[in-house]
Amino acid sequence: MAEDIVARVLRQWQQVHPGLDTAPMAVIGRLNRCAALLQQATDAPLVHEGLTRAEFDILGTLRRTGRELTPGQIARETFASGAAVTKRLRVLEDRALVARRPDDRDRRVAHLSLTDEGRELIDRLIPHQLGYEQALLEGLGAGRQTELAETLAELLVLLEGRLGGLQP
Predict the structure, then answer these.
(1) What distance in Å separates the CA atoms of residue 150 and residue 155, rounded to the nearest whole number?
(2) Quick count: other Cβ atoms within 10 Å of Cβ 33?
(3) Which tens digit of pLDDT belongs to each residue from 82-103?
(4) For residue 114, which phi and psi values (nearest 5 degrees)?
(5) What is the mean pLDDT of residues 74-89?
(6) Please, are residues 112 and 89 in contact by the beta-carbon 8 Å criterion?
(7) What's the whole-number mean pLDDT along residues 70-74?
(8) What is the C-alpha to C-alpha distance for residues 134 and 137, in angstroms, rounded to an integer?
(9) Whole-angstrom Cα distance, residue 88 to residue 58?
């Protein structure tokens, strides 16, 4: 098996600090590097539609929940700040992909939903995006992908519990 960049980093740390336990770096460094590379690769098809990953995530969130959401709910679902969601929603509204409806009782609250154009776009994009992502993972095989997904799920639950990231 070819050596990855993290293996080189670990070896360099062992030369500078022999005996240093770099096991956490072996996991976290690889997760960070994979996340950066996957983010870069999976954003590529979205660029052709004039979307950012964050905008795609908002459209996907509205589609998969199947109901109106407030900006705060979207922020929690997409792990983004309220300010970032507001900025992204403005872009999506300008493109007529998302519609805003004021709350009947509190005019400060907005309810957001997909327009027909937004629904058509996300319904067209999601199978293509998933196919692209599957192609990126092909070298692992189905069994290894399942095993990796289960291991990452365990880590995610652990981290969410420790870092208070669980959302109601």
Answers:
(1) 9
(2) 14
(3) 999 999 999 999 999 999 999 8
(4) -75, 140
(5) 93
(6) yes
(7) 94
(8) 5
(9) 8
